[in-house]
Design goal:
heterodimer, A: alpha+beta, 6-stranded mixed β-barrel, 14 helices, 10 strands, 18% strand, B: alpha/beta, Rossmann fold, 8 helices, globular, binds adenosine-5'-triphosphate, binds magnesium ion
Amino acid sequence: MSLTESLKMAWRALVGNRLRAILTMLGIIIGVAAVIALITAGQAATSSVTSSVQALGSNLISVSPIRSSGVVLYPQDSAWLLQVVPQIKADAPLVEASVTSSYETVSWSTTLIGTTPAALGIEGRKLAQGRFISAQDLSGNRDVAVLGQTVAQSLFGARDPMRQTISVNGTPFTVIGVLQATGGAFGANADNVIIVPVPAAEWVAGTTQLTGIEAQARSAAIAPLAVAQITAVLNHRFATTNAASVVSQDQILSTLSTITATLTLMLGGIAGISLLVGGIGIMNIMLVTVSERTREIGLRKALGASRQAILSQFLIESSLLSVAGGAIGVVVGVGLSGLLTHLLGAGGVSISAVALALGFSLLVGIGFGIWPAANASHLDPVQALYHD
Amino acid sequence: MTEVVRVDELSRIFRTGAVEVQAVRSVSFSIEEGAMVAIMGPSGSGKTTMMNMLGCLDRPTSGRYFLGGEDVAKKTDDALARIRNRRIGFVFQSYNLLTALNALENVELPLVYRGMASGERHRVAAQTLAEVGLSELMSFRPYELSGGQQQRVGIARALAGTPDLLLADEPTGNLDSVSGEEILNLFLDLHQRGRTLIIVTHDEQVALHCQRIIRLKDGRVLSDQPVDPARRRIKADLGTRALTS
Ligand SMILES: Nc1ncnc2c1ncn2[C@@H]1O[C@H](COP(=O)(O)OP(=O)(O)OP(=O)(O)O)[C@@H](O)[C@H]1O
Ligand SMILES: [Mg+2]
């Protein structure tokens, strides 16, 4: 018997029992849609994490002194580090403080970062307006500020912040530039900053101690070596084994992608279980179908159907159920993914997730259909024929 | 004359738990091509069991069965399926039509399992339905047909594959006397065209139209006798006339 013949037969059997077929498919539809939507969500999270980490700057290494080891760094240590570690091509000190900024009647809580002109290149930031802090600003002790997008919008709305004076914890600063947004759902903090020259930040924060130093490795390949070298020189200088936490962007990225990959796998796995439950639903209904149609099976055997013909009849029926369910599930899943992408602002439907879900649903149909179909094919023709 | 069926010491024992039923016990007979044979006997005498073995649906517990000279008792399931498909036509008391299919599609079923292309299948099935007088009702579903019409579809289905042997287990058992007579006439017509028929019946009138009656009791052959030709011919003539009129 030809495949088209078998398909036609299976189709008629399913259409003849429409409601049952649809309800059975529902399990697969939900499973497939869930797999696609959840994998898309996981991948959206991964890509947004990745892009916001990459937005931190290329080959970025952050150095944070560990106070419990008695280590304190000062602004001049940044120049020293650049000298003693040949693997880095630039670095910048960071003096950070939580502050309240205000313009006219508007106030906004944000992070003040005092640094040097090198920070712009190290972090790979771009300016939307104006200029970044310069060497003259530092040496001239000028109270100038560069605003992150979030701060600019919160304080000024649609107005132009350039050359306006804002107050940071009571100290007036002149706005000389606005940074471009870094983008990415997890990048919100990088936009909620005010960047000023180091001396100005020291004044506002009331301390000359650094929160850290950020450095740029000469290349991605050399970054691990740079990390080791920085760790070594700091440990040596402070005569400790634990002077600072030194982390490269790569390390952050790989840690984060391990986390998000696990998350994606977990989400996919949960959705996969629902697909499995859908498969059990198919098996259940196929067992019912076989026992309901025992006489029909007996008759077909009496008319000359081979075991294999009966087996493939029911296998094709269950596969058709699961593949049709899978196809509808793909449509629903792609729709849901579109919605998620819209809400998360990242992602997009994953083709591999669609292929995976469809392939898995076909496997489920065959896998869970094989037992009922084998039962049918092994029925004794006489007993089946006179079954009631 | 060629021998179509020969059974030799055929037995069938059913075992259900500790109970053993000897449904057919050492039955031997042979049937020649073109014969029309009735099998009679009280309920439980083993007629259906016998027919199932003759139709290769069931295997004997012991003994041999030659179909067209070939020993079929030891064949594999798939080989038996093939024999049922090509060489046997089965007519059932309860018609056994598939309600999801119309008359034409029901008749096509055995041809589907023969791998016949659909165009050819339609043609053969339609022609066979016309032979049993149902060319007008080909697209009707079983539940839209009378009992007699359904049985004619059943007969067309058995005939469509041009089998060597036509087996009918109480084909008129579910029918009123008028429909029963129509079906009987159809069988007589087939007989006259040279078909080999074995009919299980409780109806003495049906049996008298056959050439020979095998009577079973408790699984054994009680008697195996030809029907008086004089009595037969009159009935047969009446039958043919009824069919052609
Ligand atoms: N599958 C089976 N398992 C056990 N016993 C069976 C089975 N099939 C038939 N029998 C027994 O075999 C005997 C013969 O049954 P069979 O159906 O052949 O009789 P029959 O002559 O066709 O009767 P009826 O005229 O009522 O149709 C009966 O005693 C029956 O109970
Ligand atoms: Mg019987």
